[in-house]
Amino acid sequence: MSVDRHEITVTVNGTPYRRSVESRLLLSDFLRHDLLLAGTHVGCEHGVCGACTVIVDTAAVRSCLMFAAQADGLRITTVEGLAPDQDHLHPLQQSMRDCHGLQCGYCTPGILMTMKAFLDETPAPDEAQIREALSGNLCRCTGYQHIVEAMQLAAQRLRGSAT
Amino acid sequence: MKPAPFRYVAARSVEQALQLKAEYGDEARFLAGGQSLVPTMNFRLTQPAVLIDINPLNELAGIRNGGDRLRIGALTRYRSLERDPTIERKLPLIHEALPHIAHPQIRNRGTIGGNLAHADPASEMPAIVLTLGGRLHAQSAKGERWIEARNFFVGALTTALEADEMLTEIELPVAPADSGACFLEMSRRRGDFAIIGVACTVRLDTQRRCVEARIGLCNAGDGPVFAEEASRSLLGKQIGEREIAEAAALVQGAIDPGGSIHASKEYQRHIAGVLTTRALTTADERARHER
Fold first, then answer.
1. Which CATH number goes with the domain that contains B247?
2. Does residue B39 lie in a domain region?
3. Pick from B146, B173, B200: which residue ends a domain?
């Protein structure tokens, strides 16, 4: 069987990329290997762990459950697109740092992207809503407590900066 | 793991997608949300020769209001159903069940049609569509037909769809004003597969006697289960503790759960009884409130 390839144009963190991809290439591998955006982590590759979560248009999705060929024409945001510049962190990242919301950091990019999409839609969440939104991301280090605290702080900071 | 090679086609029209499916039959799979199909491809449990991506077909998504029936396009994502006020008002059973269906990221991609065509016995939506007595619209290059939910789910991961057919639409009866619904599920963690899930609807007359009751379960057998005898047992009665206990016992007798390392069959049967009791109690209260 000859290799089935497709030309795609995809915008990642505001930059348009044109690439030829094999049809079976997962979006997660495309981001990491073809675009060298290795901030998106690959954990389970079957949609359970949430480490590979990216934002497609406005919704957080598992990039291991999409093919790169499907991303043609879409706008994608990865963890590399969060910080405004080299010297500053996004409020979500700063809050994770301030609250000790990570230890090994493997799950962190997925959690940040999940919570970015969530807080964009739900700027003033209560703790139960935060926990529900986090339910699709596994973290084996923190026990989630500090992540929840970080998200409460981040929500507060984001509301502050929006006014 | 990575999927085996396949040919990918982004469908340009329903006709083109159906033509390809007619050509390749079981060798081709439709790709909707991909939240069940892609994991099995990553494990190489599924190795389609051709993947027909129907995501570009916007005409397959959306909710259409038709009086006492509601039609939901197969490509409608759970995310849209969750945020749709019509679903909350007219199909409260689905609205209540949605947060139990996997996680937000999965619901952002997952579609109702993909889920129903996948026909996982542990999945919530097949049990709900069966409980509500819905019907499913199938289309092929040769023609189209409606399939009643009770005939659609044939067994575990098996439906009545032919190799050349696509599930395009789901039609469900709107909840009547004098009715109450309740969906309850037990799982190890929120979003995990159900150990047992119970869906029920109850309709009362002015004397608060039950004129219609429907009870269904997920992860309670080879496919979604409609507990017919238990549902019938409530007819003509005011629903009290004794009637509910009787229905719960009938449910326990009607199901055949598979058991797993997380929950034995006996435990699943026990939970089915507990959840049926609670769900019927709540549905009855809600129906009284509506009256």
1. 3.30.390.50
2. yes
3. B173
Q: What is the pLDDT of residue B87?
A: 97
pLDDT in tens, B254-276: 999 999 999 999 999 999 999 99
Residue B211 domain boundaries: 179-290
Residues of A (90-129) whose Cβ lies below 8 Å from B: 114, 118
**CA pair distance A38, A121, nearest whole angstrom:** 26
| B1 falls within a domain | no
Residue A21: closest CA among chain B residues belongs to which residue? Answer: B8
Which residues, in sequence order, are bridge partners of residue B170?
Answer: B72, B136
Number of domains in chain B: 3
Interface test mutation site (partner A, options B2, B8, B9, max chain A beta carbons within 10 A): B8
Interface of B with A in 123-142 (CB under 8 A): none
- Which pLDDT belongs to residue B189? 87
- Point out the residue among A24, A65, A66 whose CB comes nearest to the CB of B2: A24
On whether residue B41 sits in a domain, the answer given is yes
- Provide the residue type at B215 as one letter: I
Q: Within an 8 Å CB–CB cutoff, is residue B211 touching chain A? A: no
Task: Give the H or E element holding residue B117.
Answer: helix B112-118
In chain B, % of residues over pLDDT 70? 100
pLDDT one-digit tens code per residue, B129-179: 999 999 999 999 999 999 999 999 999 999 999 999 999 999 999 999 999
Q: What percent of chain B is predicted at pLDDT more than 90? A: 96
What is the nearest CA distance from A87 to chain B, expressed in angstroms? Answer: 30
B105–A135 CB contact, under 8 Å: no
- pLDDT tops 80 at residue A1: no
Distance (Å) of CA A31 to CA A27, A44, A79, B45: 6, 16, 11, 25
The 10s digit of each residue's pLDDT in B197-231 is 999 999 999 999 999 999 999 999 999 999 999 99
**B221 and B240 co-located in one domain:** yes
**B217 lies in a domain?**
yes
Q: Are B151 and B256 contained in the same domain?
A: no
Q: Which are the contacts of B146, defined by CB distance < 8 A and separation ≥ 6?
A: B135, B136, B137, B138, B171
- Rounded Cα distance, B71 and B60, in Å: 11
Q: What ipTM, to 2 d.p.?
A: 0.95
Query: What domains can you pick out in chain A, each with its CATH number?
Result: 5-81 (3.10.20.30), 91-162 (1.10.150.120)
By CB atoms closer than 10 A (0-12, 13-18, 19+), residue B288 is middle
Nearest to A136 among B31, B53, B104 (CB): B104
Cβ–Cβ below 8 Å for B34 and A1: no
Q: Do B131 and B76 lie in a common domain?
A: yes
